[in-house]
């Protein structure tokens, strides 16, 4: 008998949310606020811990310059992602930021959750950043729908071991988890760990299909392909 899908694990950038929102709104916001944020909060334990980690990785290089280099490279380095989350928090709380979601996403997430499917997130953005985006989203606070949030602390998104660790963290066999992402190498790693996979090929994001995984243009397309409940 076929193993049922009991959990949807979703990426954010290029999957639930526009690549442009991350690259043209979130990243420039963090870059513009970096110095003022560090000047104001550098002594706080959470920020001091991040800066110590940056210093440890960067060695002789000035930590602020290192952060700027990582930002320019879109490096998925855990201390940078943690710091970006801390900087975005103020923007979400005072209304300067609102988490973008494609219009098809929230209705499907709600329908899947109502039908008893578990929902989880795996993004390079920190868990705090994930909760902020879904908590202050254009479709309202969606955080109660999710029972798992995973970031690069579990491992890199192109590493098979990360997906095995996530399945273990969810107390599920990997085969019951369907991973949604726009990035082929992430899907390859998830499939190697035994997860089901679907590539989101959103025309508005200009995503190219890789041809190695089932493809959908949006979340209703995912529902059709995998026999999941439809929204509405
Ligand atoms: C939590 S939103 C910010 C996403 C982010 O920082 C990023 O680097 C994109 O990562 P993803 O794994 O969602 O593609
Ligand atoms: Mg992505």
Automatic annotation (TrEMBL):
Cofactor binding: number and manner: Binds 1 Mg(2+) ion per subunit.
Keywords: Amino-acid biosynthesis, Hydrolase, Magnesium, Metal-binding, Methionine biosynthesis
SUPFAM superfamilies: HAD-like
Pfam families, A to Z: Hydrolase
Pathway: Amino-acid biosynthesis; L-methionine biosynthesis via salvage pathway; L-methionine from S-methyl-5-thio-alpha-D-ribose 1-phosphate: step 3/6; Amino-acid biosynthesis; L-methionine biosynthesis via salvage pathway; L-methionine from S-methyl-5-thio-alpha-D-ribose 1-phosphate: step 4/6
EC id: 3.1.3.77
GO biological process: L-methionine salvage from methylthioadenosine
InterPro entries: Enolase-ppase_E1 (IPR023943), HAD-like_sf (IPR036412), HAD-SF_hydro_IA (IPR006439), HAD_sf (IPR023214)
Keyword tRNA processing: no
Cofactor or coenzyme needed: Mg(2+)
Recorded GO MF terms: 2,3-diketo-5-methylthiopentyl-1-phosphate enolase activity; 2-hydroxy-3-keto-5-methylthiopentenyl-1-phosphate phosphatase activity; acireductone synthase activity; magnesium ion binding
Keyword Magnesium: yes
Catalytic activity: 5-methylsulfanyl-2,3-dioxopentyl phosphate + H2O = 1,2-dihydroxy-5-(methylsulfanyl)pent-1-en-3-one + phosphate
Family: Belongs to the HAD-like hydrolase superfamily. MasA/MtnC family.
Record text on subunit structure and interactions: Monomer.
Function: Bifunctional enzyme that catalyzes the enolization of 2,3-diketo-5-methylthiopentyl-1-phosphate (DK-MTP-1-P) into the intermediate 2-hydroxy-3-keto-5-methylthiopentenyl-1-phosphate (HK-MTPenyl-1-P), which is then dephosphorylated to form the acireductone 1,2-dihydroxy-3-keto-5-methylthiopentene (DHK-MTPene).
Name of the protein this chain belongs to: Enolase-phosphatase E1
Gene source species: Neoroseomonas marina
